[in-house]
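2.7 Reproducibility. Because tokenized structures are sensitive to small changes in the input, we list the exact sequence used for NADH-quinone oxidoreductase subunit K, including any N-terminal residues retained from the expression construct. No trimming or masking was applied before prediction.
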Amino acid sequence: MPLILPLLLAVVLFCLGVYGVLARRNAITMLMSFELMLNAVNLNLVAFDAWRLDGLATGQTLAVFVITLAAAEIGLGLAIVLLLFRGHGHVDADAARDLLEKGADR
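Resulting structure tokens (single pass, no recycling of outputs):
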């Protein structure tokens, strides 16, 4: 399989993720968009590792680290979203600005 096909798929996934982060205000949708971007990075890592054929599996190893980072990010992000929903009844990222302390806003 040529290298361009997984790279094009990764570009599409990354662009969808960027659009989801910039255009949407729902915190759950933003977390899913971050996951799309991380999956695009993983796809690039594995595709370049398969293309390079070095035997060290460096790209696959880095992809495992990125998956671990994504799992930690989702765990922390979902905890914040659940706390936001429990306290305010919504998960709107723009409306979360009232979480600032009174002395912290400038």
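The two ends are 54 Å apart (CA to CA).
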